[in-house]
């Protein structure tokens, strides 16, 4: 039975080839009728076909499809060694030593810049971020700002230009902005930063549980370690550009360099 099927397919294939070749050229007359050419020859033997002209709407659709294909999110984890610039307010006191342990274990360099009592406005008005980028040439930037702006009224109007300035200074460098560890509901700083930062570049800390220091605001050192560990766990599936951060055995370490600015500096 199988042999008969094979013979039948061969017969049909042969008939198609004969018809295709015959119909590709000038066709004979049968009675008063001339068979129509399939124009296969013009397709097979054309020297070069002209490119089709696409309408504006079709070109726009193709551009959107290409952009969708190119937007892979999140990107695969970058396993190369990084130069990380970590900037922010006093929250870095707890976060920076833990991040330094990750960097030491994973072959990264960490440069931490603590500006006490700083805000997005203070950093946005300053040229310090641009200068540190020029000096250290970081391949990755982490920001921890907003704790000193939890209760600013009309913040989305007052701080927008400064948050935009910080993001503009960063440019194409991959980054993560760590939101403040709220101890009370904020007036909009988290909403503002998350709306301006690209997808996967903002970590929302609000809603997490923290053990607090005596001031009631800063997480304790051990709680800051848990905070940074949570950010690292979040990165592979949520960060726009994850980097290799395997968990170290040591709890803390020292950054390659720590720079401190006082509140009075500009």
Textual characterization of the structure:
With 266 residues, the chain is of the alpha/beta class. Helices cover 42% and strands 12% of the residues. It has ten helices and eight strands. It has a six-stranded parallel β-sheet with strand order 7-6-5-3-4-8, with helices on both faces. Strand 6, helix 9 and strand 7 form a beta-alpha-beta unit. Helix 4 crosses helix 10 (221-238). The longest helix is centred in the first third of the chain and has 22 residues, at 2-23. It is globular and about 65 Å long. The N and C termini lie far apart (90 Å). Residues 1-8, 15-28 and 43-49 have low confidence and may be disordered.
The span between the termini is 90 Å
List the total number of helices: 10
Strand content: 5-15%
Instruction: Give start-end ranges of low-pLDDT stretches.
Output: 1-8, 15-28, 43-49
Mean pLDDT: 85
- Global structural class: alpha/beta
Describe the main β-sheet briefly.
Answer: 6 strands, parallel
E-strand count: 8
Secondary structure: helix percent: 40-55%
Shape by Cα distribution: globular
Give the spatial strand order of the biggest sheet: 7-6-5-3-4-8
Reconstruct the topology from this structure:
Layout lengths: L1 H22 L5 E2 L2 E2 L5 H5 L11 H15 L12 E6 L3 H15 L2 E7 L4 H6 L2 H9 L3 E5 L10 H4 L1 H11 L4 E4 L10 H8 L5 E2 L17 H18 L18 E5 L5
Parallel strand pairs: 3-4, 3-5, 4-8, 5-6, 6-7
Antiparallel strand pairs: 1-2
Helix pairs in contact: 4-10
């Amino acid at each position: 039975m199988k042999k008969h099927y094979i013979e039948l397919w061969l017969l049909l294939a042969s008939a198609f080839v004969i018809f295709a070749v015959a119909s590709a050229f000038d066709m004979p007359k049968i009675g008063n009728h001339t068979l129509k050419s399939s124009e296969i020859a013009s397709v097979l033997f054309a020297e070069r076909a002209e490119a089709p002209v696409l309408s504006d709407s079709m070109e726009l659709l193709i551009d959107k499809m290409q952009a969708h294909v190119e937007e892979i999110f999140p990107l695969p984890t970058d396993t190369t060694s990084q130069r990380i610039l970590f900037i922010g307010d006093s929250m870095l006191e707890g976060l920076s030593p833990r991040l330094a342990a990750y960097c030491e274990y994973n072959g990264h360099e960490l440069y931490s810049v603590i500006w006490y009592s700083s805000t997005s406005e203070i950093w946005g008005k300053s040229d310090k971020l641009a200068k540190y980028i020029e000096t250290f040439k970081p391949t990755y930037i982490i920001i921890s700002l907003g704790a000193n702006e939890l209760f600013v009224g009309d913040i989305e109007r007052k701080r927008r230009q400064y948050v935009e300035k910080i993001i503009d200074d960063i440019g194409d460098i991959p980054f993560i902005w760590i939101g403040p560890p709220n101890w009370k509901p904020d007036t909009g700083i988290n909403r503002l930063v998350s709306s301006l930062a690209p997808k996967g570049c903002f970590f929302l800390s609000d809603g997490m549980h923290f053990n607090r220091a005596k001031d009631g605001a800063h997480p304790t050192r051990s709680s800051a370690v848990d905070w940074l560990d949570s950010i690292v766990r979040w990165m592979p599936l949520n960060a726009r550009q994850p980097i290799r951060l395997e968990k170290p055995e040591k709890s803390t370490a020292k950054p390659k360099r720590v720079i401190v600015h006082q509140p009075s500096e500009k």
